[in-house]
């Protein structure tokens, strides 16, 4: 039962990440190609919009059953903001490295970087820190 729930939560989180990510990536292209911003600035702006979408879906759909609303939104939002700042920094630097060092187009470098950042940084921190299960809350509810 626990494993099935963990897989379901992971899949839900991937949907949230996909929706936030597709918004983020699409806006990055628009800001870079249409508005002619440098892609590192585009990532900053688009990442912020994608993060708002991701946070909302995670809080109200993915992790609501695990953490309930016992954890104040301000605490979750603060932690999420720190994760997003780290994520945007890693994505910007990673994309820049792919572009400058390996001569990879920024759009491809961004996709490669996103894979590593999403699974190795974002998901573990969002699940285990931002929306961490409140064990005391779950025990009380299950009785």
UniProtKB/TrEMBL annotation:
<feature type="transmembrane region" description="Helical">
    <location>
        <begin position="77"/>
        <end position="98"/>
    </location>
</feature>
<feature type="transmembrane region" description="Helical">
    <location>
        <begin position="39"/>
        <end position="57"/>
    </location>
</feature>
<feature type="transmembrane region" description="Helical">
    <location>
        <begin position="6"/>
        <end position="27"/>
    </location>
</feature>
<protein>
    <recommendedName>
        <fullName>GtrA/DPMS transmembrane domain-containing protein</fullName>
    </recommendedName>
</protein>
<keyword id="KW-0472">Membrane</keyword>
<keyword id="KW-0812">Transmembrane</keyword>
<dbReference type="InterPro" id="IPR007267">
    <property type="entry name" value="GtrA_DPMS_TM"/>
</dbReference>
<keyword id="KW-1133">Transmembrane helix</keyword>
<feature type="domain" description="GtrA/DPMS transmembrane">
    <location>
        <begin position="18"/>
        <end position="131"/>
    </location>
</feature>
<dbReference type="Pfam" id="PF04138">
    <property type="entry name" value="GtrA_DPMS_TM"/>
</dbReference>
């Amino acid at each position: 039962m626990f494993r099935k729930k963990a897989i379901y939560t992971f899949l839900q989180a991937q949907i949230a990440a996909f929706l936030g990510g597709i918004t983020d990536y699409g806006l990055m292209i628009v800001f870079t190609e249409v508005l002619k911003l440098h892609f590192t600035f585009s990532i900053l702006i688009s990442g912020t919009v994608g993060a708002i979408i991701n946070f909302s879906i995670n809080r109200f759909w993915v992790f609501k059953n695990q953490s309930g609303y016992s954890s104040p939104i301000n605490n979750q939002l603060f932690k999420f903001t720190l994760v997003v700042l780290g994520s945007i920094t890693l994505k910007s630097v990673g994309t820049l490295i792919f572009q400058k060092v390996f001569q990879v187009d920024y759009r491809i470098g961004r996709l490669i970087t996103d894979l590593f950042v999403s699974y190795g940084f974002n998901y573990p921190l969002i699940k285990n820190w931002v929306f961490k299960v409140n064990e005391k809350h779950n025990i009380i509810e299950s009785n």
